From TrEMBL:
Natural source organism: Gordonia crocea
Coiled coil: none
InterPro entries: Glyas_Bleomycin-R_OHBP_Dase, Glyas_Fos-R_dOase_dom, VOC_core
Domain of life: Bacteria
SUPFAM superfamilies: Glyoxalase/Bleomycin resistance protein/Dihydroxybiphenyl dioxygenase (SSF54593)
Protein name: Glyoxalase
Sequence ranges assigned to domain VOC in this UniProt record: 1-117
A family per Pfam: Glyoxalase
Length: 122
């Protein structure tokens, strides 16, 4: 939660439950209809220990889910996230498909890609 609140500047909207059944909803302050739900992987009675282990390996690898964000100033956003000690996956760069983006991992290992808004100039 601290990464999303303190590093990305998201609002904490809900903090529900406790232990393995706790989930937290966060979102950008200027987008009240956008929410990201944070919870432990494989929560629930219908997930086996083996499946939970597979999910944890996929998350650690960066292959399971992820969040795509956009910003008006990719370089400043990236610098602030890097200064906060985030796990850097890719520094800001131009992609072959025309987007300019960067990638980091949150403390749980989830991939976060941050794209420059199309209006950003360089």
């Amino acid at each position: 939660m601290a990464f999303y609140r303190d590093v990305l500047g998201f609002d904490v909207r809900l903090d529900v439950g406790g232990g393995t059944m706790r989930w937290i909803t966060v979102g950008p302050p200027n987008q009240p209809d956008t929410a990201i739900v944070l919870h432990p992987p494989g929560v629930g009675n219908d997930v086996t220990d083996e499946e939970r282990e597979v999910l944890q390996r996929l998350i650690a690898k960066g292959s399971y889910f992820g969040v795509n964000l956009s910003t008006d100033d990719l370089d400043a956003t990236f610098a602030a996230i890097e200064a906060a000690g985030a796990d850097i996956v890719q520094e800001p760069m131009e992609q072959d498909w025309g987007a300019r983006d960067a990638a980091v991992r949150d403390p749980a290992g989830n991939m976060i890609r941050i794209q420059a808004n199309p209006e950003e100039t360089h």
